[in-house]
Predict the structure.
Amino acid sequence: MPPFATPRTPLPESRVALVTTGGVHLKNQPPFDIDDPIGDCSCREVPSETRPEDLTWTHFYHAPERAESGDLDGLFPLRTLREIATDGVIGSINDRHFSFMGAIHDAGPLIDETAPEVAGKLLRDGVDAVLVTPSCPLCHRNAALVAQEIERSGIPTVTLSMEGGMDAPRVGRVGFAYNEPCGPPGEAGLHRAVVLAALDLVWEADLKGEVRLPFGW
């Protein structure tokens, strides 16, 4: 059974962080190794003040339309999270966020090393809740493993999912295509609505499992 942490701080006072398995990174950071046959289990830190134009992505499952749009907020809603923090919906946004490339075939190093390291950093940062966003089919399995490790550290998570049966502590199921857990590029209002609905689950979901959110069906 996945661990299940309960929130200790109301949403308007909470410090929130993002974790993705969508291969997002700064343009000046080393890209993820998509040629590694077992998968690249490394992680990239993304500062909160990062501008959208300074982000890119490297992922085994290529989505040309996402790259061409230049809008990664539907996968990694950093801009949206900053806006809802400014609006006072959440207490604050963490100073840093974390990205994996989730097309990992051998998750051993992720389970043993990288995910616990990220969970420890989030704990030291005083994070109260984490939004987890996968991208591809394999991402879902590995995002669940990362979410479990974060919950094991005592921080509640909610994971957006484009497919059913995800073994994460709290899951908000959406009807979008892979690579777009918060909706298609350029849909800022939709991204905001999805993020808010997902964060509400951290406080509303009393039991482990999946809740179908009213988006994309």
Q: What stands out?
A: Helices lie at 64-69, 78-86, 108-124, 137-152, 188-204. The chain has a mean pLDDT of 93. The beta strands are 15-20, 24-26, 44-47, 55-57, 92-93, 96-99, 129-133, 157-161, 170-173, 209-212. The first strand starts at residue 15 and ends at 20.
